[in-house]
Amino acid sequence: RAVPYRTVPCAMATAWPELEAAARERRRELSLSGAAVSGRVSAGGGRLPEALLELPLLQSLELSGCAALRELSPGLAAALPALHTLVLRDNALGPAGLGAGLGGTLPNLRLLDLSGNGLEALPAALGGTGGEEPAATPGLRSLNLSGNRLRELGPGLALAAPQLQALLLSGNRLRALPGGLLPTPDASNANAGLFPLLSRLEAADNELEELGTDISALPALKSLDVANNQLRELPSALADCPRLKEANFRGNQLKDKRLEKMVNGCQTKAILEYLRAGGRGKGKAESGREEARKKKREKQQKKDFGDGEQDEVEEASKLLVKVLHVSENPAPLVVKVSPGVRDVRAFIVCCVLKGVNLKPGNALKRFLSAQTKLHEDICEKRTAATIATHDLQLIKGPLTYDVQPPEELKITPLGRKELKAKDLLRQLQLEAEEQRKQKKRQNVSGLHRYLQLLDGKDNYPCLVDAEGVVISFPPITNSEKTKIRKDTRDLFLEVTSATSLQICKDVMDTLILKIAELNRFTLESKEGSGSENESDALCGPDNLNHGQNVQPASVPLVVEQVRVLDTDGNLKVLYPSKTDLSTVSSLLTVIR
Q1: What is the pLDDT of residues 404-432, one digit of tens each?
Q2: What positions does the domain B3/B4 tRNA-binding occupy (predicted)?
């Protein structure tokens, strides 16, 4: 049953038209920022209006760039239980001001951005009290604390956010890392296993004088950034981080000049091997201790992950993709973005992926199942982002990412005839009601689960080709016109979000990795061997290697960069850029 919005008081509606509109349109996303908002907050004594608590359906809330904002509305967490994204950057929120609003539990929160608030300590909701209260943000995956004044962090954060995957701490005043985040080596095992999923840790531009040996107690750590600090040494324990693939130590005054040269050359693998070998000036006794510690660490890794998972990680590292830059592409695809998408679904990232093989056996079925699973997991049931995949050969560029009124937007949905968006949604709603009646339950399946994501929208987002045909209607469906089939070899990939550009990029990274994994599985499995057609699907019609035993792991997929431009031709997004695909770099070799 839909959660009813309560009526916003008339006086407050006058002062805060954004809240009145959000209540009337039953919005899931709300963004408040800018000078006008700051002025109203200042007039309200540095606090937000109580009317904000009358929007229980909100899933994404941004309150940024408001120097007058010193306190969140008390009871915010309890009033907005559906929140999965909360952006509070560049305000003046202190621990007390945050504590008033974040007190309680936010069970669905996945992303929290508190950067640029001048925080000197964490709020109680993030373990600032150091106690052992139940997790306040049990599902939190990304926490941004950059640009504050934090001098230390305690183990309470790991208890408050046990599922954390990315922790951003750059631009603070931290002296040691991990510091108090993790238990000391001689601590009891009661706190063992803190941050089991933390893969990205950034602490550049702090005052770090020590990088502790307990950094190796982060079993999932893949990316570490401690640039521009005051480190003089790097611990050999870094070599014991089982999944560390990217590390930035530049801007530190390291005593070991040979090591510093490797650091300046960004040679992460060489750095870890150097540290593993004992580095410069290590005696036999210390090298012996390091070897003993390494064996102990390997034993713990096997206990934590199992030999099988470690082998899988190493095998996956053989996956290859090659990036084709725009400058090397004679006919690059371009996407133009209209200004209207900003208020509906602002963010889009696109690319072309060539060389997939969907012909053999159940390859296409596996591909579609993987996309569905990504929508459930990393896309958080399409509330964070939506994936669309198209047959590139059926697309006519350039493309336009636009908005159209529901009564004007026409699309031929997958498996259906052409109809207007408003009629499609009405049809899906009727099907959902019938599904509920037949199954005698509230939950529905398929596209019916995503209808509420467009509630209250005056315009709907769409991707239109050069002929004016709508090929995508996010977050609902693609067009039958560009449907992927077994003989599809080249894909156009699209990820959209109303939340953030970074979420689009992270989802696209994961999508490319998953397709690369599926492609290799298809090529190496029995169903993918012994057929000339399947060989054609891999190598193309001009294949000269029929009958030869191609090594599939060495054949890279090709990712072509796609530019997203505004209406004036200014670049908004280029994917993949030189920094993209970093989230999956430990599993994917990228040839640039």
Answers
A1: 999 999 999 988 999 999 999 888 888 87
A2: 344-520
Domain carrying residue 470: 319-524+554-590
Say what the alpha-carbon torsion angle 334, 336, 342, 348 is, to the nearest 10 degrees: -10
Distance of alpha carbon 102 from alpha carbon 94, whole angstroms: 12
User: 4-12, long-range: CB within 8 Å, 24+ apart, which pairs?
Assistant: 5/54, 5/55, 5/56, 5/57, 6/54, 7/54, 8/51, 8/54, 9/51, 12/49, 12/50, 12/51
Q: Is the pTM of this model over 0.90?
A: no
How far apart, in whole angstroms, are the C-alpha atoms of residue 42 and residue 415? 53
Domain-located, residue 546: no
**Domain count across the chain:** 2
Tell me if 242 is assigned to some domain: no
Torsion-angle region of 138 (φ positive above 0: left; ψ -120 to 50: alpha; else: beta): alpha
User: What's the CA gap between 97 and 83, in Å, rounded?
Assistant: 19
How many other C-beta atoms are found inside a 10 Å radius of the C-beta of residue 552? Answer: 19
Q: How far is CA 505 from the centre of its chain?
A: 7
Q: Which amino acid is at 573?
A: V
- 240 Cβ neighbours under 8 A, 6+ residues apart: 216, 293, 294, 297
Tokens 């992270």 locate to: 506
Burial annotation 406-435 (CB, 10 A radius, 16+ → b, else e): beebbbbbeeeeebbbeebbeebeeebeee
